[in-house]
Records
---
Amino acid sequence: MVHSGRSWARAAQDIREGIANRELWGHLGWQDIKQRYRRSVIGPLWITLSMAITALGLGLLYSQLFGSPIGTFLPYLTVGFIVWNFILGCLTEGSDTFISNEGLIKHLPAPLTVYALRTVWRQTLMLMHNMLVYLVVLAIFFGPLSTPGYTLSQGGGVPQPGLSWTIVFAIPAFALIALNGAWVTLLFGIISTRYRDIPQVIGALIQLLFFMTPIVWPVDILTKKLGSGDWKLLLIEANPLYHFIQILRAPLIGSEQSWHHWAVAGGVTVIGWALAFVAMRNYRARVPYWV
């Protein structure tokens, strides 16, 4: 049976073949990292060094501003930045995926999903470099993080259970985040090839999203100031990025894990992939002409 270019079967086939071509997108992702730090003295370790400097500088500053204990706040901020950088990369570089791969798309007969997975894999490699910073921070502050009842803010912070075997939940948490990174790259990548203003819009909104997401500030601070029933706290819950960051950060720092974060992240995953599948079905064949 021959399917037209605009069909669900062709969209599903593109995704299946893209995943199957893991050697191709895996190699391209590695080459992106190597090319970016070509002729550099320490190479990709610049990724780790940049994260370490950012986390240390902002951790020391904001811990003093918020009156938070450095032993628990610095790991909180470090993991938040690591996850945020992965999400940020999927949003910004994902929206530019097909545009930046124009030459390959026009001359290499490969599924579009290959280029999306190339971007997600590249961001995964960068996250793996940044996790070295987390391991160092964990080794230094293991005592405070493993103490049951520790708090992220002084004077009324919510007691946290501390590090335990639940750290293994970080594995499915990252898998879920990476799965969302794939649909984000596919959906926004396709839209951006048609409307070139989309990457600019995303870039303009990034700073706002950063400050609205609990990365450098704990939710405890707003809860103490506003009260747990204040409607303004609903703005935080309405931010899907908060839930994605929290499902990975909570197990890594021994924080309390709320299953509603997983429920929201799972719901966004289903809706996002449905939208990406529709975009693949309707516009996949047009991308080579739009780029």
Note: The mean pLDDT is 88.
---
Amino acid sequence: MQVFERILGIILPVFIIIAVGYGYARLRGERVRSDMSSVNRVSMDVLCPLLVFTALAAKDFDLVDNSMLIFAGVLISLGSGLVAWPVARMLGYDVRSFVPPMMYNNCGNMGLPLAVLAFGTSGLPAAVALFMACNLIYFSVGIKIIESGRSYHTPFWKFLVSPMMLAMAVGMVFAIFHITLPTPLMQALKMLGDACIPIMLFALGVRMLDVNFKSWHIGLMGAIVCPVGGLVVAWLLDQVLHLDPMQRGQMFLFAALPPAVFCFMVAEQYKQEPDKVASIVLLGNLAALAFVPVGLWMGLPAAS
């Protein structure tokens, strides 16, 4: 019951912010949805990259100590996509809409707080390592999947100089060489990065006005496939990888997380069925009430 209350304490604010965005959009009408496009662009180009950078550049993050966990995170993200691909084909979903959200879970605004609650502040570096692994896969393989079948493809070098990839690369340099920024500057950048979380949730609430009845089927399947695929891959990795108890617990928690809100932002930018991706994200975060305790149960016994 205590674990459930902790999870509810994190998930409930998520749905409150989504509900506020939905209510505001209902009140203000169509204009709000068009105005949010500019806000979403700022989030993707500035705020979210700063969230990634400040997480990696934090003083308590050690890249070497968490290298095996990063490897596990990469395999879980890729494995979840491999599990989701035949499901999408079998059910007639557009792979570009269904598979990328399965590869990019909510390891930021849900995973980081949950890691602290479950493992204490000492568990935050491991959660940051998994956060980096997930971002690395989504902004390389995931974006390529979204762009597949289109007449225009972004050259690979443009991915390397995109705001998110640059933020990750610079953050890794800071982590490897233990570079520290002046405290006021770091705090300012962190405040900007943290701002992207409520903005993404609010934007998701606005987008929920466009969700139609048919979107709930793909949303429900995504809510199940993402954590189930992740947990299956994590269980297989647990048989071969030698992780310490803390890292093992973090791996299972990471695997059980729902699709990230950021997937909706990317779907809207690419005009890739954002209403369906919004449904996947919304129902996935609701289903986290069931799947996150499973991940904690699988990982916590060895980490306790």
Note: Residues 22 and 205 are 4 Å apart (CA to CA).
---
Amino acid sequence: MNYKYTWSASAGNRRLTPYLSLLLITGTLLFLSSCKEKKNTFEQKKGNSPTTVDVMIAKAENIGNQVEVNGSVVASEFAELRPEVSGLLTFLSVPEGALVQKGTVVARVNSADLEAQVSKLKVQLELAETTEKRLKQLIDINGVNQADYDIAINTVNGLKADIQYTQTLIDKTVVRAPFTGIIGLRRVSAGSYVTPSNVIATIQQLSQLRIDFTVPESYQNYVPKGSNVQVLLDQNTGKRLSARIIASEPQVNQSTRNLTVRAVLNGGTATPGSFVKVYLNEGAEKSSILIPANCIIPEAKSKKVVLVKNGKAMFVNVETGSRQEEYIEIIKGLSVGDSVVVSGVLFARQDAPVTVRSVRDVKVVSK
């Protein structure tokens, strides 16, 4: 009896299995359906909730109206040392990176043939001068024609000119430092055949550095000769030095519409060719509304900022002025006391409700 009962119970379980499986599947589908409905309902509620933003209260700040432009460091004197004649380098003295005095011989080109030519001309000149002296004695007693004496004089003068010309060619074979300065890297070796197109080395005078920079033509009235500008040599230290404007190009570049200006740096050291920042002072300090630059929403033909009024976001058009590091001047569109959205700008929508999380204080440093 136990054996039959066990077998029948097992069979009963087998018959109930399909019904239990169907019941479990149906329950699972109903549960998932209810969860999905709840999730959609939650997202819909979240979409209607106010956007959380941070704002700043627009206020007038006294700022120095400065313009920032790019510039480069230029040596007070710069030259490429080249030979004036072609030939073999017989002497080369280039102390790389060292200070050399004006007139120091840096290189010599082989001039043996020219020196031999000078020796030959001197012998001919000696003979021509002897002949001229003899004819001079004869011309005094009418012993020779005046034309013969004139030919002798002309021969002497011609030989002297040839000697002077050849000596000039010999002088051109010597390369000297044109001024006192730091000599650069050597570009040729002794024994090389050089031409005037070859650069032996460069030399720069670093005693009084200059700053070259360009400004838009609209700012040319702010860079008069003799005025001072501020120069930032090292971005890490942030220290600015003064430079005095000594000259500017007489005309504006027609391609870029910029004016090139040169100033002399008052102290400081830098490597010629280095990038620097130049700050021009447009005038006295003025009162302006400044906001962070990331608050601006650029569009095709306008710029906008987001304000908070009556708990809703409002987009307004603004006109911007000069930019000062991380901040930008607002010329038109904002009033003192307006609540400007500084974070959460991308999530704000016109006339949509917003919640102000905090009010930030933007500190503007006058420079």
Note: The helical segments are 2-47, 112-140, 146-172.
